């Protein structure tokens, strides 16, 4: 009996449940952690009057305080994907889980639409695009929390299904490299970029948010796209199945993807495609484990070179627009009128 209880507590399902509980706790707790926001303000005020050595030390402390919510939330989200990927499911089992999660997502979204009385107001059922707007604008309550957890699990299950087709560890490297290349272009200048500009609420409705601390209500500071947990699940499920070091992959993916998120949060970079960070993590975590044929090496090198070559163009596209002469003149007029 004791051995059976120990086995059940050590099972991936138990770990997955624990990670989800932590995820829910952070979702509720981080927005209420006003002490973090207060501490950041105190450090910022003290930095302005401190000497240079003390100012540098305080700045480092401030960066740590601001980074804590993102680090904790990334750890919870990546752990959920990792533990889901440890489940031993065949194609039928994974497909049934996927259908169950999709049905749960439909129920949660229907609950949001019902609570807002959308059907009575529109006198019809909303279209898919309208549903995206409605869900994106809906306040971040418990329904939204369960919805994003379900989306995270659904993306993980989709990645798990994809991983069932990867039967050779040498296929993993080209897959993540190609995913990084697609992520770079679709988000920077492709269809995802267009949707983000024209309908950002739709993108936010299907992206996993990371909250700000101490805002009272849930206010997203960063967003993790739907493809990120999907391809993380592909990697984690594949390394478990193919005999690679799963814990090493988990550590590298968590560390490098969290650093990428923090770089954006702290304005060190305007945007970093998360799947590029994932590809870097996979390469470093499995260095020397891939035995590519000559053709596979050439194909992977071509994708890598194309990815590196297009980075300057993407940075150029994403650079902040310089102020125009008209906007500068208007700002000068406002400053003049405010200082008679």
Gist of the model:
By secondary structure, this protein is mostly helical.
The largest sheet, given as strand count, sense and whether it forms a barrel, is: 2 strands, antiparallel
How many DSSP H or I helices?
16
Which oligomeric state applies?
A: single chain
- β-strand number: 2
Shape: globular
Radius of gyration: 23 Å
What is the total domain count? 1
Question: Which structural traits does this protein have?
Answer:
disordered C terminus, 2 strands, disordered N terminus, 16 helices, mainly alpha, 340 residues
Question: Can you put this structure into words, describing what you see?
Answer:
This protein is 76% helix and 3% strand. A two-stranded antiparallel sheet has the order 1-2. With 340 residues, the chain is mostly helical. Helix 4 packs across helix 13, helix 8 crosses helix 12 and helix 12 runs parallel beside helix 14 (274-285). The longest helix is centred in the N-terminal third of the chain and has 34 residues, at 52-85.
Task: Please render the helix and strand layout as text.
Elements: H1 2-9, H2 12-29, H3 34-49, H4 52-85, H5 91-115, H6 118-122, H7 128-137, H8 142-163, H9 169-188, H10 191-198, H11 200-205, E1 208-211, E2 220-224, H12 227-242, H13 246-265, H14 274-285, H15 294-318, H16 325-338
Antiparallel strand pairs: 1-2
Helix pairs in contact: 2-4, 3-4, 4-8, 4-12, 4-13, 5-8, 8-12, 9-12, 9-14, 9-15, 12-13, 12-14, 13-14
